[in-house]
């Protein structure tokens, strides 16, 4: 069995340590080698699915793929407080993800208050409040 088959099998079984351990050494962000970049995206997804928020948070300081994986995972798990904390520290992606999550869960008023509290001049955040047609 080749390494990626082993990684896929481990992922399917929820054996995150094995899957991450196999993919991580072959991953390279923004690599000219599309395979290495693909492995990087897979690595970020594995970290998110494994709930490795500390690792993603550290990587997110410099890696936009880690940031997006972190935001998506927090959103999927309904972790509004964590998204808000990131948004309060200036992470606009976390703000946008939080606003979308709140609007999609019928919490539009809370979304409006969040934008007003954290970044009232942010035109994109206001467009998100207006919905898809906004």
Description:
There is one protein chain. The chain is mainly alpha-helical and 134 residues long. 72% of the residues lie in helices and 0% in strands. The protein contains nine helices and no strands. α4 packs antiparallel against α5 and α6 packs antiparallel against α7. It is elongated and about 55 Å long.
Structure at a glance:
The chain has helices at residues 3-13, 16-23, 34-49, 53-60, 64-76, 80-88, 92-104, 108-118, 123-129. It has 134 residues and is mainly alpha-helical. Helix 1 (3-13) packs antiparallel against helix 2 (16-23), helix 2 runs antiparallel to helix 3 and helix 6 (80-88) packs antiparallel against helix 7 (92-104).
Apparent shape? elongated
- SS element count, helices: 9
Largest sheet: none
Structural class: mainly alpha
Low-confidence runs (pLDDT<50, min 5 residues)?
none
Number of strand elements: 0
Topology:
Blueprint: H1 3-13, H2 16-23, H3 34-49, H4 53-60, H5 64-76, H6 80-88, H7 92-104, H8 108-118, H9 123-129
Helix pairs in contact: 1-2, 2-3, 3-5, 4-5, 5-7, 6-7, 7-8, 7-9
